[in-house]
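To close the chapter, one final illustration. This time we ask the reader to focus less on the individual chains and more on the assembly as a whole: which components sit near each other, and how the overall shape emerges from the parts.
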Amino acid sequence: MKKIELLSPAGDLERLKVTLLYGADAVYIGGYKYSLRANANNFSIDEIREGCNFAHKLGKKVHLTLNIVFHNEDMDGVEDYIDQVVSAGIDAFIVSDPFIISFIKNKYPNVEVHLSTQNSTTNYESIKFFENEGIDRVVLARELSKNEISEIIKKVKCDIEVFIHGAMCTCFSGRCALSNYVTGRDANRGGCAQVCRFSFKNDGYKDFTFATKDMNMAAHIGELIDMGVRSLKVEGRMRSLYYLATVIGTYRNIIDDYYDGILNDKSMKIYQERLDRVANRETSDHYFSKEADYEDQYYTGRSEVSNQDYLGQVISYDKENKLLKIYERNYFEVGDTLELFTYDGIHKEFVLDKLYNCDMESIDVARHPDDIYYLYLDVDFEIHEYSMLKIVKKGRV
Amino acid sequence: MKILAEVINKNNLYLEIVDGIILPIKDYSVESVCYFDIDEIISIKKNTNREVFVKINKNLFNKDISSVKEILQTLNDNKIDGVFFYDLAILQLKNELNLDIKLIWNQTHMVNNYRTCDYYYSKGVDYALLGKEITIDEILEIIKLSKIGSMVEVVSLPSVGFSRRLLVSNYYNDLGVSGDKVLKVKEKITDTNYDVIEDENGTCFYYDKIMNGTGIIKDLYNNGCNYIIFREYGIDDFSELLSDTKEYIDNKCESSMYIDKYKKLGDSTNFFFKKTIYKVK
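The assembled structure is written out below.
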């Protein structure tokens, strides 16, 4: 049985490497043009090539989003662009425009084309249309129930991909131009200003938003595997390295444990807690188990939670001198209980005894984000670049 | 260039004025305020020599497919003049059922370039209802360069977003109060108003400024646009607007008089004269 794909977002080359190292089977990225995250860092052609080389060496894949809704002017140069990214090594395109689908499949029949969730595909007949056009995979709309997804999988031949984690749109994807009207920013060409999260006024009542809670499908991964879903997609090309490492690493654990038959309530509780710790909004499974209702929305009373668990990213580990070199992200001090986690799946908790600044002077507090610090840590395993540090408990035990 | 209308009252279809009407079908269309069942549609078609188009523009779900098949067959058998579709299942079903009925590509915010219009034309789609978030120059370029027939919505309260969620009911549930299914809200930063209307298929956002495209009608006419569309929801004196536009197109009234008169619809010309942006850094 082919193992389900874990598909991660990557807003830049560093995120691409980190998410693949932390367990993604494939990443989806955007180029400088034609992507629905026009304001992410995105990838140059050279960076796409480097990213593809990195992924392919690990036996993994890179998908490129080409999923804007094209205007006349956007068509200029798109064919050359497709040629360039194919030669850079892209494994699949994520596309919403059927003209682009037919162009790619006619010219590059061996390159996969995936239908973007921007098309909000909600039924099997619509998928049959795209199968006739040569589509290899469809990313389903996020508005579908378990039964609806299951029926679609039974009735179509192409691969099915579903979102499992991250932010949700209030409207059907592709069927919202609120951003255009409120801010002039084109929602369907990568400029969405997320107006559904803006504040609205209704006379006589408190100001409110139309915002949705985020999606978290961790509890349903086994069901999705058993249904025959081909790929599990995480949202968030503009999310931080720490967030992506945590979310992708955790879903990697859940998927592997499920296939190994060792996923249980206890381990699931730990995984869910990890996901909850990096969430800045409440989560739900939206339409999967029931019709989404008011409990899946934020109307009033919500504030963004800023997560300060993340302390720093490992640059290297000097095994001989037991020194961990890190970039700091958030304040911590000697006596705090920290957790080191690695893409090998190691989670090591320790109390920080000794801390040094970049000149190797002993200090008590790491207070400057982006500075380099050294931590004393005596372990007998390798610690690679891109391992992460987070806080477990403040102060001495 | 023909005039089509989408109305808000089943008892006043303006058939004596327009060239055709658009009837949103009950249960399978959205972003409208007046829906017709299949019997009403067939009856209207049988009793008029005007063109009758049907709108089936909701995102269809598996459970809708068998009913939609029957509806398409019935519409085809009764010589309905065309079906506005959003979901590609409609195009697939037309092919599967080998129907003759004309189709109009009506993916609200997506009908924005001539090459994709041509793609749909090559798949047997007859017309494209062009997007409302593109400029008049882009519209005219599509009309000029694409083989597909063209339709342009020129006067309406624009529908700007559609959700499967029951956002108005949910909102009142959250507040713990009851209310009707129409919410009038103001976005605070830009101070713009929206009508948020919910029915059993979901919730539609309408921008509460009339899209006044009366000033582009002659450009559309001169460049070979096939149909212009007027939607009655939110528009006063709709009958007069339709009659005046008919005379304007037929050169039976002074252009300046028509244009001046319909300044009363307001100064929102949507995106006809301004481009959207998408890179902010």
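Chain A touches chain B through 71 residues (CB under 8 Å). The first strand of chain A starts at residue 5 and ends at 9. With these observations in hand, you are ready for the problems at the end of the chapter.
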